Amino acid sequence: MLSSKVTCNSHGQDSSYFLGWEEYEKNPYDEVKNPNGIIQMGLAENQLSFDLLESWLQKNPEIAAFKKHNNDQCIFKELALFQDYHGLPAFKNALVRFMSEIRGNTVTFDPNNLVLTAGATSANETLMFCIANPGDAILIPTPYYPGFDRDLKWRTGAEIVPIHCSSLNGFRITKPALEDAYKQAEKQNLKVKGVLVTNPSNPLGTSLSLHELDLLVNFISTKNIHLISDEIYSGTVFSYPSFTSIMEVLKNRNLMNTEIAKRVHIVYSLSKDLGLPGFRIGAIYSNDERVVSAATKMSSFGLISSQTQYLLSEILSDKKFTKTYLSENRRRLKQRHEKLVKGLQKTGIRCLQSNAGLFCWVDMRHLLSSDTFEGEMELWLKIVYEVGLNISPGSSCHCSEPGWFRICFANMSEETLAVAMQRVKSFVESIVKKNTQSRHQQLLKRDSRRSKSLPKWVFELSFDHQREVSDER
Ligand SMILES: Cc1ncc(COP(=O)(O)O)c(C=O)c1O
């Protein structure tokens, strides 16, 4: 009696990505109350700069109390009644200014091209509703954010076809990989409507190079398809190389007023850069007025509440604050990233070199019992249940090579990260010890087999040799 949406499983809730969260919820680590619990390292949350936001609120108490800045006028009623799905103009202006600031003011954004949505989740789904019919396909480079299976496919009926990227070139997008994915979709009789990239990438923590961005623009231009650039991590770039938005590429190639630019759409959110996933603040930026108009109508299903818009318009209009916040947040992310990379390095575990994001893409291929996804799952289960860390296996991000894991570093205290590193160290040491013991036993077995199978004179010779050596001593 229920619809197929209720029974179909394209939501992806049964992926190990979400299962790990469930295990964490059952037994969460707490330094005092549950020191043996599971540490959550599978959640891309930014908790490193809350104090900066909190101190802004302390300095501006009138804003949280629904009062106007420098003015005692109460705007509670105004906000409570506001329901225009075009959003508060003051907020949209402040958001586009912030988006430009993150990109070093190399590009500007027109607030009329902006659609507000309840987070990037809603923005991505809305864009899919705008560009694809049920059964159409979107190409996505692997590994990719596990939530895309839910956001892009579940309610829209669209399909994802992976663009397989390889560790051999640091998981970079190549022309052959793009063409292969396109052919693969055609083989499956799927009409390709676009490519979706996350720049900087979740889970790689790397920003796209100019070469990759150029490839993408050329590809969507020759195939006559769309490009969605999810730039939710644009403010988390903490080291070289810097981040280039797809908008800058269009501008630099003089494509801004062309049909190609109309097929390029940006997704943004304050969930990562400001660490506010609970406030559900997202946006679509599109150069196509038909997309803007349709997405605005659709945004009725997932609006940002007006008091949130009001609060954020005040925070983001404070230029001094945003400047300090962005640079301090980047500095803290860089420091934390280094702690994780060095901590893992000490145990012989290597991370993909990265410059952004709230996570590292970690190579644990040498710890697999077999070079398969079964081997990856076996290792992941040990890490969750025996080591007590919830990390995300590469298979949940559709990585085509087993043995890679995403480890988040910005959702915990430094002390908790230190405990996690200690746990990894003990785990790796126990594996090394076990492997040495089993190798030793294998050697002993081999030697005893050899000595049994060797002719008697070899044994006698070796015995004589040993006697000679000990006589010489
Ligand atoms: C690449 C990417 N897009 C979208 C989202 C969803 O973000 P939001 O909380 O704004 O819905 C996430 C969250 O982790 C993400 O990593």
From TrEMBL:
One of its GO terms (biological process) is fruit ripening. Residues 39-424 form the Aminotransferase class I/classII large domain. Pfam families: Aminotran_1_2. Its EC number is 4.4.1.14. It comes from the Eukaryota. Its cofactor is pyridoxal 5'-phosphate. Keywords: Ethylene biosynthesis, Fruit ripening, Lyase, Pyridoxal phosphate, S-adenosyl-L-methionine. Pathway: Alkene biosynthesis; ethylene biosynthesis via S-adenosyl-L-methionine; ethylene from S-adenosyl-L-methionine: step 1/2. It catalyses: S-adenosyl-L-methionine = 1-aminocyclopropane-1-carboxylate + S-methyl-5'-thioadenosine + H(+). GO terms for molecular function: 1-aminocyclopropane-1-carboxylate synthase activity; pyridoxal phosphate binding; transaminase activity. Belongs to the class-I pyridoxal-phosphate-dependent aminotransferase family. This is 1-aminocyclopropane-1-carboxylate synthase. It comes from Lactuca virosa.
